[in-house]
Amino acid sequence: TPEQAARMKKLQEQEKRQKVEFRKRMEQEVSQFIQATGEPRRRFQPMNKIERSILHDVAEVAGLTSFSFGDDEDSRYVMVFKKEFAPSDEELEAYRRGEEWDPARAEERRRLRELAAQQEEAELERGPAPPGPPNDYKDKYRHLIGSEAAKAAARTMEANKAYGCVPVANKRDTRSIEEAMNEIRAKKRLR
């Protein structure tokens, strides 16, 4: 109907006006931020997707770096950084986790990472550990076997004559393998 179309057009114009006003307000805030000397970054209030995109555009035109942070749509906010204070990857990660950026703590973490890397490098230079178990099983079971038991057992060990290679003289069956196989085949044929 024509009334709905007119109402719709009026709403669209109102929305457009609101966006233009919001953009002007953001341009003013961004220019104030640029002129503020002691402020390397500014965090804006949470805003909806359209407002965030307008603010990102204003920041880009002004030559600033901007990022959005926050988990859900209601709490997402924009942070604007001056180019000379562009955030490091660590700083961005802290904001993404919802933490406040602390340069001193970040420096401490970086130092610990460097130290760990140096230790790892030193271990690699030392080379692999010698093969073999780290301890001797005899030490572990000394209370059971004593310290002389293994040596005495090793001395008395002799090869078992009934086990392993049997000399031909001790074999009951003196046929060769071929002869035995031929006999088996002949029996099968008779059946």
Protein architecture, described:
- This protein has helices spanning 2-35, 49-61, 89-96, 103-126, 137-140, 142-145, 149-156, 177-190; strands at residues 41-43, 65-69, 77-81.
- The chain is 57% helix and 7% strand.
- The protein has 191 residues and is mainly alpha-helical.
- The protein has a domain at 2-87: 2-Layer Sandwich (Ribosomal Protein S8, Chain: A, domain 1).
- It is elongated, with a radius of gyration of 42 Å.
- The N and C termini lie far apart (102 Å).
- The protein has a three-stranded antiparallel β-sheet with strand order 1-3-2, with helices on one face.
- A hairpin with a 7-residue loop joins strand 2 (65-69) and strand 3.
Per the CATH scheme, the topology name of the domain at 2-87 is Ribosomal Protein S8, Chain: A, domain 1
Give the second-level CATH assignment, the architecture of the domain at 2-87: 2-Layer Sandwich
Low-confidence stretches: none
What is the terminal separation in angstroms?
Answer: 102 Å
Largest sheet: 3 strands, antiparallel
Mean pLDDT: 82
Q: Strand share of the residues?
A: 5-15%
Q: Level of helix content?
A: 55-70%
Identify the overall geometry: elongated
The H-level CATH homologous superfamily of the domain at 2-87, spelled out, is R3H-like domain
Taken in chain order, the helices and strands follow as: HEHEEHHHHHH
- Please give the count of helices: 8
Strand order of the largest sheet: 1-3-2
Q: Tell me how many strands there are.
A: 3
Radius of gyration: 42 Å
The assigned structural class equals: mainly alpha
